[in-house]
Amino acid sequence: MEERIIGTLQGVKDKNYEIHDSYSLPDLTTMMLQRIGSTDPELRNGLIHNIFTTFIERKYYNHEQMRNILKSILNKNYLFYRIHFSSQEEDAVFKRSYSMLLLPPIMEQHKLEPFLTTKEIHQIWSDLKRYLQQERDHRGYIPGKGWAHAIAHAADAVAAVVDCEEITVTEVKDMLPVIREQFLIDSPYLHDEEERMVTAIMKMFEKIEENEKVEWLETLLHKRESWDDPKEDIIINNCKHLLRSMYFRSLYGDHRQLTLVLERLLRTLRKEEAY
What we know:
By secondary structure, the chain is an all-alpha fold. The chain is about 65% helix and about 0% strand. The chain is built from 13 helices and 2 strands. It starts with a helix and ends in a 5-residue tail after the last helix.
């Protein structure tokens, strides 16, 4: 069964993403949604994600079809699939993560030719926030199964949605503490998750005041409770990487005040390092 599906989708890719005469767009879409969380990295990423992205960019889907895809992926069977029950080592993360990864190309089409209502955009943001509050699988690359990268994909989605003018200052300020909680954890980020999240943070910063940025950044200064617990070092390291990535990003553009604040925070955090 899986080999037949791979063969079908590989044929689509080989023919410059043209749809076979024997398959309709709805049939292919259903087929790909049903296997969006496959543990086969070539099927999941090389075929399904690439085909979905290309179809969306080429406008194969009309607005109603894209809205229906959104409705499919933003529910308990996709974006929230087993999120309350899944252990950190469970394959359910792939379904959640690759559902999330469809949001950026869809939102890009919305920006080019708006088709989502204000209510729908606010709901997408709310779903993103709820997802980040609940996701506990922080693995990046998994040998034999490829990229899970749930937090990196969520960062890409946040960056895509916050560009919408409908996203308010209040919504941004409500999301920032959730991001903080995802980074001050005792599980190390190893695959540039902080870089992807900084892209989202810098876009969110465009919507809030300087003092509000500083107030949130100061919450990232983790105060260690023990000098003997290695988990404390991991938390501090995650925090340092996030602040450091933001510092170097602030060097581009008119962010001098932000750069100075980040320098101060990194110097302060240095006091909490064990070496």
